[in-house]
Write a structure and sequence with these properties.
Elements: H1 15-23, E1 27-29, E2 35-37, H2 39-45, H3 49-66, H4 71-83, E3 89-91, H5 97-108, E4 113-116, E5 119-121
Antiparallel strand pairs: 1-2, 3-5, 4-5
Main location: nucleus
Organism: Hermanssonia centrifuga
Pfam family, one: Tfb2
Length: 134
Amino acid sequence: MVSSGTGRNPTRPSQGVLFLLQRSGLMASIQNSSLQITSTGFQFLLHSPHAQLWELLLQYLHMAEERQMDLVEVLSFLFMLSTMELGRDYSVEHLSPTQVAMLEDLRDYGIIWQRRSYSFGNYADLIFTPSPNC
């Protein structure tokens, strides 16, 4: 969700990312204009990356309940992701529809990298390591 700093024009985030940022109060639509960062969003940027990730994952859990996703399955998949070997590809063949939806969401958020439609990899560095700020 952060610019890579390559000097190229950044691509617009997906609707899912924008929805998460708006629902978490980090961005807001002011007078029916495009989304703008809020004071909460500026404070969020001052947190450690681990604290930022945990805050977004907690908001995702709230949204998952609203989307009528099985919360046990959502948590189970997140814990499963935390135990996967970094940099390795994993098959999507045996994932449930909820897990596939989560995979798409997490890919949009930049947490999961998906090179091919039939596999995914966990390339985030220690994304579930607790932080003293969490």
